[in-house]
Amino acid sequence: MERIILFDGECNFCEWNVRFIIKRDPRATFKFAPLQSNLAQSFINGSNKKETYSTVVLIENHKIYTESTAALRISKQLNGIWPILYFFIIIPRPLRNLVYRYFAENRYKWFGKKEQCMVPTPELRKRFLH
C-alpha cells in the first residue's frame, strides 16, 4: 500500500512531526515530500480536489486525506500507543477540523518557521520523494 505524507517543509513543528513519524514507522510505510515541492504539487494538481493545502496531506492508495483525518490515519499506522488516537475519528469531522485548524493556524507563531524546507540526512533520504 502506498502512503505518502505531504508536509509543510517550512514549519518547525511539521519537521519535528516527520521525524516523530519516521521513528515510529520502522517498516518505512510512509514516504514524504514537502508541500512546497513540485512533486507534491503534481500529486495535488492531479487529484480531483482543487483545494489549497498548507498542512499535512496523506495520500493513501491514490486517495487524499487532509487535516484531522490525515493525522488520525497516520497515527493508526505508527508503532506504540499512537494507534489509539484513531479513536477520535468518531468525533464529527467538522468539529475535529475546527481544533486541527486552530493548531495549524498558530503553528508558526508557536514553533517558528524555516527559511527553507528541511534537508534529510543521507540515511533518511530514501524516505523522501524527489
Task: Note down, in words, how this protein is organized.
By secondary structure, this protein is α+β, with helices and mostly antiparallel strands. It has one domain (3-127). It has helices at 12-23, 38-45, 67-76, 93-111, and strands spanning 3-7, 30-34, 57-60, 63-66. Strands 2-1-3-4 form a 4-stranded mixed β-sheet, sandwiched between helices. Strand 1 (3-7), helix 1 and strand 2 form a beta-alpha-beta unit.
Gap between N and C termini: 19 Å
- Rg, please? 14 Å
Report the total helices. Answer: 4
Give the domain tally.
Answer: 1
Oligomer: single chain
- Low-pLDDT stretches are none
- How many runs of DSSP E, i.e. beta strands? 4
Largest beta sheet: strand ordering: 2-1-3-4
The major β-sheet equals:
4 strands, mixed
- Helix fraction, binned, reads 25-40%
Descriptive terms for the model:
single chain; 130 residues; alpha+beta; 4-stranded mixed β-sheet; 4 helices; 38% helix
Please sum up the structure shown.
By secondary structure, the protein is α+β, with helices and mostly antiparallel strands. The chain contains 4 helices and 4 strands.
Protein topology:
Elements (H helix, E strand, L loop, with lengths): L2 E5 L4 H12 L6 E5 L3 H8 L11 E4 L2 E4 H10 L16 H19 L19
Parallel strand pairs: 1-2
Antiparallel strand pairs: 1-3, 3-4
